[in-house]
Amino acid sequence: MSKIPGRLVLLGHPVAHSLSPIFQNAALRAAGISLLYEAIDVAPRDLRALLKKLKDLGVAGNVTIPHKVAVHASCDELTDVAERVGAVNTFWFESEQLHGDNTDVGGFDSAARALVGGETAGARVVVLGSGGAAAAVIAAVEQWPDARVAIVARNPERASKLARRFRDVARVEKSAEQAVADATLVVNATPVGQREAEQPLDIGIIPKTAAVMDLVYHRGGGTPWVKAARKRGNPAADGLPMLLEQGALSFHRWFGIEADREVMRQSLL
């Protein structure tokens, strides 16, 4: 961006559970930037009208479920990665144009590399889900040498469409058990587990050598799925590392400076 935004917001529905305001406001204070990062709960039917209002205020911010695809469609300018993913999680206005980026890709890449010890070449990744989060995961994995992705999703049509977009690395697998048989990393890219104890996949069918990553996050110890994986001996992480990193990358996009990642992390402890 060429100037400081007039306001920073997170757009979602629901959004009250989000931890983004906590760590983004900590990063703003650490950087000496006198802005407040606020969460706005906006229903899908009201999103377009709100974006018009935010334009007049020169607002920047983040986008979460269920608006990432809709904001992508509303953007005048997209970064290459946002265009590739088909979803936007970071936005800003410049010269009265709505710009969109997707820092979920970089956030996932960083968190996944940390989980698997940095070795991503030849990875066999299973992605549960076929929405914007799944697309961000696959966009990161397609940059890993000789990596492959199996998509397991409840919506066959959407899963097939996603696989076609990433045809060089991705395929649809109808059987979750077959998909995970040779997996090195299994990723939950669905909202399952966000507000209940339900788990996206039986941990018992996942090889004990496979890492498990849940893009859902729970403050204080991980989701039930992650806890079950750790108890069984699988390396596992919830979505907090990815959330923090995508937030830091968004911060850099808005202000052109690095966020203090340690301050952001400490704010959640």
Key features of this structure:
269 residues, alpha/beta, Rossmann fold, 2 domains, six-stranded parallel beta sheet, globular
Could you name the CATH topology of the largest domain? Rossmann fold
List the strand order in the largest sheet: 2-1-3-5-6-4
Estimate percent helicity. Answer: 25-40%
Averaged pLDDT: 95
Q: Tell me the CATH architecture of the largest domain.
A: 3-Layer(aba) Sandwich
Q: Could you provide a short overview of the structure?
A:
The protein is an alpha/beta fold and 269 residues long. It has helices spanning 20-31, 47-57, 68-74, 80-85, 104-115, 132-141, 156-165, 176-179, 224-232, 240-255, 261-267, and strands at 7-12, 37-41, 59-63, 77-78, 90-94, 97-101, 124-128, 148-152, 170-172, 185-188, 211-214, 236-237. The protein contains eleven helices and twelve strands.
Describe the model.
This protein folds into 2 domains: 7-101 and 242-267, Leucine Dehydrogenase, chain A, domain 1 (Rossmann fold, 3-Layer(aba) Sandwich), CATH 3.40.50.10860; 105-238, NAD(P)-binding Rossmann-like Domain (Rossmann fold, 3-Layer(aba) Sandwich). Strands 2-1-3-5-6-4 form a 6-stranded mixed sheet, sandwiched between helices. With 269 residues, the protein is an alpha/beta fold. It has 11 helices and 12 strands. It has helices spanning 20-31, 47-57, 68-74, 80-85, 104-115, 132-141, 156-165, 176-179, 224-232, 240-255, 261-267; strands at residues 7-12, 37-41, 59-63, 77-78, 90-94, 97-101, 124-128, 148-152, 170-172, 185-188, 211-214, 236-237. The model has no long low-confidence stretch (mean pLDDT 95). α6 links the parallel β7 (124-128) and β8.
